[in-house]
Design a protein that fits this description.
This protein has two domains: 156 residues, Rossmann fold; 77 residues, no CATH class. The chain has 249 residues and is α/β, with parallel strands linked by helices. α5 links the parallel β3 and β4. α7 packs across α8, α7 crosses α9 and α8 runs parallel beside α10. Helices cover 50% and strands 12% of the residues. The longest helix has 15 residues.
Length: 249
């Protein structure tokens, strides 16, 4: 299995690595990892982070995995029907165990709209149950609303051992690596990689880009400048120089 690369997210990486360093205490069942609430917007790498955490836990035998699905990722839309179906699905995913054993990743952005409704009470009851055998990771927006903040407090009241991770701050180098990864996934080959990398770091720093959303837009602009005249799509320093010229002018 190819190891999942994760750029940025230093706080959660540090927490996970500290767990893995003490893997023996976890693997024999004397200690369980904390649950986490992570500030990370939709579309900014939630699934990548899910894979990274799960791979680390599996490799170091941090928790017990009894299902063919090492992790489950559910984005709640706030409706009662979907909530009930989701926890029913988690029960079915337990396979040969009495309850699901693995890592559960919950996107709870929309649940904040139902903070005083039955859905949230049902959600809290169910996370208390599944947390007995699974590790829970909750994703919330990087700039949470008042209702999401209230929901965070309710979760931490129910699950006492839950750590809050603030939004990640990216360096220009980390954002550059993310852009290069986006280009690679599009099948675009980078010419003169070292020179391209250095110029892209400088361009991102000059443009004062700070977030994943920022570099998504930048990657789109680079894709539009890519040379598609041959069988292999290529981009290089010349395209970046043109973009830098456009930015400065």
């Amino acid at each position: 299995m190819r190891e999942t690369l994760l750029y940025g997210h230093e706080e959660i990486k540090k927490a996970i690595n500290e767990i893995c360093v003490n893997s023996k205490a976890y693997s024999i069942g004397r200690v369980r990892p904390s649950n986490y609430i992570i500030h990370l917007d939709r579309g900014n790498g939630r699934t990548t982070l899910a894979r990274y955490i799960t791979e680390k836990f599996y490799k170091h035998s941090i928790i017990k995995f009894s299902s063919k699905d090492l992790f489950l990722e559910i984005d709640f839309d706030g409706t009662l029907k979907q909530l009930q179906e989701s926890f029913g699905y988690i029960s079915l995913a337990a396979c040969y165990a009495n309850s699901y054993e693995g890592v559960l990743f919950f996107g709870i952005d929309s649940l904040g709209d139902y903070i005083h409704e039955t859905q949230v009470e049902l959600f809290l009851d169910n996370i208390a149950k599944v947390s007995e055998t699974a590790t829970l990771i909750f994703y919330v927006p990087e700039n949470p609303s008042r209702s999401i903040s209230q929901l965070i407090d309710k979760i931490r009241d129910v699950l006492k051992d839950t750590v809050l991770i603030e939004k990640s701050v990216y360096t220009a180098t980390e954002l550059t690596l993310i852009v290069e990864s986006m280009l690679e996934k599009r099948g675009i080959e980078i010419d003169q990689k070292a020179q391209f990398h250095e110029q892209l770091v400088n361009l991102i720093a000059h443009m004062e880009l700070k977030t994943i959303d920022d570099v998504k837009e930048l990657s789109k602009r680079i894709i539009l400048l890519t040379d598609y005249s041959s069988l292999i799509s290529r981009v290089g320093s010349s395209q970046l120089r043109k973009m830098r010229h456009d930015v400065l002018s």
